[in-house]
Amino acid sequence: SQELEQSPQSLIVQEGKNLTINCTSSKTLYGLYWYKQKYGEGLIFLMMLQKGGEEKSHEKITAKLDEKKQQSSLHITASQPSHAGIYLCGADIDGNDMRFGAGTRLTVKP
Amino acid sequence: NAGVTQTPKFRVLKTGQSMTLLCAQDMNHEYMYWYRQDPGMGLRLIHYSVGEGTTAKGEVPDGYNVSRLKKQNFLLGLESAAPSQTSVYFCASSGQGWQPQHFGDGTRLSIL
């Protein structure tokens, strides 16, 4: 079973539109990480969140961790074809080893 | 700067055969990890190591063994391959503390 639930599983958006991907756990998340994966390639680190309420941004991507440290969101503003790929969240849950969500496949239509 | 390098990139095995996947990192990282990625399952941790000479079981360790004889290398072994081990295998490394993991490009393994 997945300890980290990601939603949606897949997403198709028109270029220029905003979108949000969610990552949820019933347990406390320690060190929440967001990665991007292109088909057939490894994972590229995007951002890391540790503190409840923390928010980080890089270019057009913003990630937030809620106050209870059980849910994170990844928001992309004005999406571009270069944003297409699979987004995965990973976290140290309850101080144990790393767990990953199943991923969200993003398609951006030009 | 190569980062994390996995060899081989592709391999096809027959049921019952054995093989070793090699992971090498040049970032002087203490921690190294082996994952498998299956459709709809995300990444699942097989084994990991927090330093040279140490290994620990992850979420799905059965059917795999690992060794970390040198700090820069982490080997994943399949003693008797089974079709259920058909997957894409990723190696990662990280520094100590709250550091992001750096991933290799993966090894696609098919077991017939």
Summarize the structure.
Chain A has 110 residues and is mainly beta. Chain A has no helices and 11 strands. Chain B contains no helices and 11 strands.
Contiguous low-pLDDT stretches of chain A (5 residues minimum) are none
In CATH terms, what is the fold-level topology of chain B?
Answer: Immunoglobulin-like
Helix content of chain A: under 10%
Largest interface: A-B, 23 and 23 residues
Mean of residue pLDDT values of chain A: 91
Number of domains of chain B: 1
What percent strand of chain A? over 45%
* CATH level-two architecture of chain B: Sandwich
Please count the beta strands of chain A (DSSP E, at least 2 residues each). 11
**Structural class computed from helices and strand pairing of chain B:** mainly beta
Tell me about the biggest sheet of chain A?
Answer: 6 strands, mixed
CATH superfamily of chain A: Immunoglobulins
